Amino acid sequence: MEALKQQVCAANLDLPRLGLVTHTWGNVSGIDRQTGLFVIKPSGVPYDALTPETMVVMDLEGNRVEGTLNPSSDTKTHLELYRAFPQIGGIVHTHSPYATAWAQAGRDIPCYGTTHADYFYGPVPCARMLTQAELDLDYEKSTGLVIAELFRERKLDPVAVPGALCRCHGPFAWGKDPAQAVYHASVLEECAKMAMWTLQLNPEAQPVPQYLLDKHYFRKHGPGAYYGQK
Amino acid sequence: MEALKQQVCAANLDLPRLGLVTHTWGNVSGIDRQTGLFVIKPSGVPYDALTPETMVVMDLEGNRVEGTLNPSSDTKTHLELYRAFPQIGGIVHTHSPYATAWAQAGRDIPCYGTTHADYFYGPVPCARMLTQAELDLDYEKSTGLVIAELFRERKLDPVAVPGALCRCHGPFAWGKDPAQAVYHASVLEECAKMAMWTLQLNPEAQPVPQYLLDKHYFRKHGPGAYYGQK
Amino acid sequence: MEALKQQVCAANLDLPRLGLVTHTWGNVSGIDRQTGLFVIKPSGVPYDALTPETMVVMDLEGNRVEGTLNPSSDTKTHLELYRAFPQIGGIVHTHSPYATAWAQAGRDIPCYGTTHADYFYGPVPCARMLTQAELDLDYEKSTGLVIAELFRERKLDPVAVPGALCRCHGPFAWGKDPAQAVYHASVLEECAKMAMWTLQLNPEAQPVPQYLLDKHYFRKHGPGAYYGQK
Amino acid sequence: MEALKQQVCAANLDLPRLGLVTHTWGNVSGIDRQTGLFVIKPSGVPYDALTPETMVVMDLEGNRVEGTLNPSSDTKTHLELYRAFPQIGGIVHTHSPYATAWAQAGRDIPCYGTTHADYFYGPVPCARMLTQAELDLDYEKSTGLVIAELFRERKLDPVAVPGALCRCHGPFAWGKDPAQAVYHASVLEECAKMAMWTLQLNPEAQPVPQYLLDKHYFRKHGPGAYYGQK
Q1: Catalytic residue among D47, D108, D118, D139, which?
Q2: Chain A interface test: which of D24, D168, D197, D198 (most A C-beta within 10 Å)
Q3: d(Cα C210, Cα B122) in Å, to the nearest integer?
């Protein structure tokens, strides 16, 4: 658990370094699938005050198991995503501005190029708005459930599409561990930016053809991958 | 008063650090409601030359009570806002570029998402243009009066909507103290940016539904707030 | 002349610090009106290699009076502006991206707000394209002559409008000395940026009314000025 | 070969310094035309872990001649460009965001101004999309062949037009050596940015007239060049 706290703390500190957050507007968590416990940033604490000791440990029933600070106000969303997507090991939420603009516009981010195709196998989907009933019942829990519903209904694999937009809110991204979740959040922001500019230059721009999407995604993922060092 | 001078000086220094000002184009003030005196940046002095001793102390009749430098040329606007909004303790004016673009476009900034809803309970309103008569009489004083009129006519609570745009000019923001005023100025700029991009992606974008606005604003404000540490 | 060389060198070093140049794409000069000699950046030398000793001294007939390096390739443009505008003491040319985009679009930058009105008394004018004959005769000299023609034909005062755009090229700005010229170049870039965003938000945006332009400009300039410290 | 490794390593390190890459999304190579060997960045290695020793040496048949790491996944594209363009000595590939947006929009970057004309003699061309057959056969090799085809069909001189866009992918740029290739990549990005903004300000913007293109390009290139120090 100490190693995970260090990883989660380090991943949170990467958010301002990568330009993904303003003020305290972002949080990273990581889960230990063996114990079923996850570690998350405390709520509203500035990044430069974070240490592994300030991290909060939660179980998947939503109980604080360790730590004295309140966990991130988005904790229940993380929890529902860990439940819905057993393959993932880390989650990040930010209000990074380009991805948030797409979320506020209520649009999926189309896959316009290889930068996107290298990490997201298809568009970054935008979830529907919560109903008032869902929000009144439990806002943060419902946010996670609506993302899970989105992946279920569209038959998306959360490993192949490691992020989503929450309508009128902002992006969530995830990965096999906290560091990869943050990496995916930064890819998502960069692709959101370039997709917006692509549309400015060509409002009729088309997504990459399927064969290019397949090529780039599987060049980096799966048994035939040949990017990087083995 | 020395403590307030330090707070106001520190808040002014936050402006360049947060990327809210170019050159000397911004100023922060703070008020001591007990004595009715407020402290404000001197006019045209570069931020790196500011010290608590260079701050200017004014009374609400517009007399300089302490300090040898001229106060900010916007001093009368600050003064009128302190008179009109007795709940506030700090004010900031900048020409931060995204908020200024909305002011120059003469448009309210709609509340398109939760980033905005967390701090501004509804659109950031844009005040009307001053008439020539108002300007000739007293430009800076009239600027403050027109913002006060805007809040009166639209029945806005300056605590729930801690900022406004001056038509063809730029933003003013405020808060319970100088530090919070600067925080709100930076939120306003970030939301102005994301709202512009939202419109580029979806010219028909709609503001958040009322229930989402309520949820986010009251998650952080009022008796039921649960964001951050208590 | 040594003092002027230092001023011109320092002003050139301000260009990268203010984010106005990429690579070596900008140059500043300053003139000593008593001797009629002006000092200018050497051509193609990186900013971090500039020292006062590397500056080149020219007379207004275009002869190199001092220095061993070639002067900026834009030297003849500076020369013609010094001849046409005897009130000015420093000139800067950059390819700063927002101002250059307006120049490439072939449009004056309208005065949409007080940031602009504080320093430029009206739109930043865009000069016409050089004819092929003008270009073949002497490109850099003609560039200066076309700017001078623009101010003559539109009856503009180069002190009140301290800059212009060269069609398909980029901005020139000037001032009473090299430091003020650079300050005006940075104002021009900031206003070019905000004016572009203003148009995105409101394609029908109108320039500020004349009485607001007068107020802001004369608040900072002329006998009734009251901005800053005396 | 050691000198070339150092040059290639240094040129790779310039990519993040010039803001041209996010994460590991860019690579530079350089060729020794006498031996026919080229040096290229290893695949997926972070820039701050690069040293001359980690560089990979390849021959033009695609064999690794020196080095223990895998070469960049784009190596075959570099190889085909070295074969097709015998005049060039260095190549760079990035996903720099403005150039990538043009590539994703599938548009040539028009020459709207002198910044562009100083380095690219005409538009930056956008190559066609690879067919599925080309991609299946050999994606990276085909990418190089399609760029070569583009220059052949449009009768472009790769020295006068030192870069191109790969449809739905991003830019390649080149030069006489690795350092100049990186310089051209940064010019390409800056011009891509300004061209996008030019179109926002004037959707009917026209490229520079031929005589201005000639003037600027030949002011810096060829026997009559007079920019910089001899």
Answers
A1: D118
A2: D168
A3: 33
Å between C172 CA and nearest CA of chain B: 20
Candidates 1.20.1250.20, 3.50.50.60, 3.30.1220.10, 3.40.225.10; correct CATH number of B2-220?
3.40.225.10
pLDDT digits (tens, 9 = 90+) for C111-151: 999 999 999 999 999 999 999 999 999 999 999 999 999 99
Q: Sign (positive/negative) of CA torsion A192, A193, A197, A198?
A: negative
CB C55 within 8 A of CB C6: no
Q: How far from A216 is each of A117, A221, A226, B98, C182, CA to CA, in Å?
A: 6, 9, 10, 36, 47
Q: Is the pLDDT of residue D46 over 90?
A: yes
Q: Do D201 and C69 touch (CB under 8 A)?
A: no
Q: How close is the nearest chain D Cα to the Cα of C16, in Å?
A: 13
Instruction: Classify B29 as helix, strand or coil.
Output: strand
Among chain A residues, the shortest Cα distance to D203 is held by A201
Sketch the domain layout of chain C as residue ranges.
2-220
Cβ count near D90 (within 10 Å): 29
What are the structure tokens assigned to D142, written together?
């085909």
| Contacting residues for D10 by C-beta, under 8 A, at least 6 apart | D178, D179
| Shortest Cα distance, chain D CAs vs residue C194, angstroms | 12
Q: Which residues in chain A touch residue B201, judged by CB atoms under 8 angstroms apart?
A: 101-102, 105, 107, 196, 199
Interface confidence, given as ipTM, is 0.95
**Could you say which of A32, A59, A108, A118 is catalytic?**
A118
